[in-house]
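Lest this sound abstract, we think one record worth quoting, the chain in one-letter code, the fold tokenised, each line plainly labelled:

>
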Amino acid sequence: MIKMNQKAINAIRFLGVDAINQANSGHPGIVLDAAPMVFQLFTEHLNIDVKQPKWINRDRFILSAGHGSALLYSINHLSGYKISIEDLKKFRKLGNTPGHPEYGHTEGVETTSGPLGQGIANAVGIAVAEAHLAARFNKEDYPIIDHYTYALCGDGDLQEGVALEAISLAGHLGLGKLIVLFDSNDIQLDGKVSLAYSENHKQKFEAMNWQYIRVNDGNSIDEINKAIKKAKKEINKPSLIEVKTIIGFGTSNAGTSKVHGAAIGLAEAEALRKTLDWPYDPFVVPEEIYALYRKKVTLRGQRAHKRWKKLLESYQVAYPNDYALYQSFMLNKPVLNLDDFSAEVESAADATRNISGKIIAKLSKQFLNLIGGSADLTSSTKAKGADGNFEIENRLGRNINFGVREHAMGAMVNGLVLHGGLRVFSGAFFVFSDYMKPAIRLAAIMRIPSIFVFTHDSIAVGEDGPTHEPIEQLVGLRAIPNLNVIRPADANETLAAWKIAIESTDTPTVLVLTRQNVEKQAGTSYEGVKHGGYIVSKEKENLDGILLATGSEVELAVHVQKELKVLGKDVRVVSMPSLYLFEQQTKSYQKEVLPKRSRVIAIEMGSTLSWYKYTPFVYGMDQFGASAPMETVLDHFGFTTEKVLQYVIGKLT
């Protein structure tokens, strides 16, 4: 059996090496050194059903070191996922096996990883979801949500700030069912890890309330097995298993950075075949190896799934009300009824952050699967979950105190969403979306409905000054494909934005909200916001021009419209809270809102770059803000009715 296990490990290695050689591109080092730990995890511990890969109670395996994708594709192929030998032969070409794992593209890939550190932070979010849902639904003798989250990382992951933020919070939250396998080979792309890193992993992780376990021989599946068993027994702390390996094991460049990120070549592969006693041609795996994986992974996982289904059937009989709630969580298709929120939007003037906070509170009562929190800014963002804080003593708490960890917060939100069963939001100041951009971008790539709430959306922040006054953030996020950035003008548009966000199925949403009060406009509506841009205040008779605005500047545009009417100029005000949605409308609708013959003047307290597609006349901010009371700042930069009026008159004459 020992020999058969070794052959099964080498099957992973050579499928990976052959795929990388075929592509002449990839990272063979981790494939060769981490194959034993992946083999042991999949064949002895990981509960998955490759025929039903979305089974909610499966164990999750996150390849945080996403450059090792050939390792993941190889083990997933052997385990029975829909990854064929032909897919492996097309590694890094257009097809099923991209250079870094992509969620929704290749079966068995739990998240889009590659930017180092993101996978670990996703795994922390997944572990939070498991703990929360277990507390919600599990009964004595009925553990219907009961799975582990495993992540495989490398030295590079543990140098990224996002990973360290998430690791710190995971320890604080005592996520005992989170287990990280650390491929510790002391090498990274530029050379030895010691060139840039000298910290003591044991002391560091134990200080962050993690269990630390060391495996001295990365080729010893017995040592690895004992370590995983020990990790699974610790229920109050996450576990890091540091597995000492030799990068590029078995090659002539083993133990050096030369084997990290380049194909080893055909000659080296032939030599490796002799070294590891693998007498098979490229992409050939003996049937006995497939049989081993079928028995140890495929069938074992299917048996686990079958037992769980029986458990769930009994649960339905014993706890019908809880089962009905569970089913609604799994369906996860909330619908926001606008009429239910009349009280939340009744104020004539309020900050859109306040309106958003009221909406979140009401939504939390309606939908028990809504969970989220802010990065130590709850009192400012109003983005707070219900039922107390999620912590060791209160796993039912739906308010996650992320602490001052914006980047981990974004990645954890993605992990919570990826788990399934939950609707998830985060909260931060808009200027700090810069700290979250990689996670937001990955949500868009994965097509998952994460919700990112940002407040303090402009120079109207005032006294906090240019460090806290966003300028370029709007145009930067609007440039991300498949990301719906909504900047509502008032209470009605804020409610509409939340309806769009909470009902989204394959698009993440960014809500950009004011700190200052804004007047509720008579013409704002959900139907309008749904179209991205719409006429919020129509011209009376003749169309002399169009004022195009978003957010608080819609109110400003309406005031300017009234002053222009007195001066004999009849203009239209268009609110465009979402350029993303507006661009999805028909050309005829777009022309109806913004006729080509009309002079359009865009007004926004942010970078002008968003608007040149619609008009050459943009009244915006292409400089940093200033520190002073809000009214002083707005006057200084010309965002008053009088100064905008003066600019508009000049463009209309």
